Amino acid sequence: MPGLAEKQPGAEPKTQAMAGALEFSANWFAVYTNSRHEKRVAAHFAERQVESFLPLYAAHHRWKNRCEMNLDLPLFPNYVFVRIDPRDRVRVLAVPGVLSLVGFGRALAPLPDSEIEALRSGVGQRKIKPYPYLVVGERARIKAGPMAGMEGVLVREKNNFRVVLTLDVIMQSVVVEVDADDLEAAPRCASRVVLPSEPTGRHSQRYRL
Q: How many Å apart are CA 143 and CA 156, to the nearest integer?
């Protein structure tokens, strides 16, 4: 009778197969696009049955001829999010208007499902707009509502509280208006650092340790 420490026949190949399946499971990734091509790229993804997400926000624009119009603009200019198996990156890169998938060299940088789902729930239900990318500041956690669990930098404009939420993978931020009762202090965490390696695309990446 084999000892407890002895490996069963076939166990190692099964373990390797499981690890490979996890490595190549579908995740959300950021797609870097040509300027002002975000909606067109998202339409191409829909036609090709590639799961994608393009968060938009409402903006009021006044043209030089004094004509005013309400527009739906990309929340993160030059970015569309896709949920794919990394082995399917060629399908994404073949779409007109796509420049690259965000990552480091050949390794793609996945985004947490929780961040994408929170954005899905929050867009259209809260006043949300782009905001300059921030690295330091007081952090707060949203504890109620569709974006509960998201953490960001607490700012104040006049009498309203807002939380700046950051997607570190693409170095982009948005600001969300929240009620003071829906906020709580976030646990202290280590500061972000810039990784020395050069990612795919023309932008550097930052991650929270």
A: 18
Q: With pLDDT > 90 as the criterion, what percentage of the chain qualifies? A: 38
pTM, entire model: 0.67
How distant, in Å, are the alpha carbons of 46, 113, 181, 192 from that of 188? 40, 22, 20, 12
| Residue 135: predicted pLDDT | 61
Integer Cα distance of 53 and 80 in angstroms: 6
**CATH for 13-208?**
3.30.70.940
Q: What is the DSSP letter of 208?
A: E
Alpha helices in 26-112 (DSSP H): 38-47, 89-93
Domain ranges of the chain: 13-208
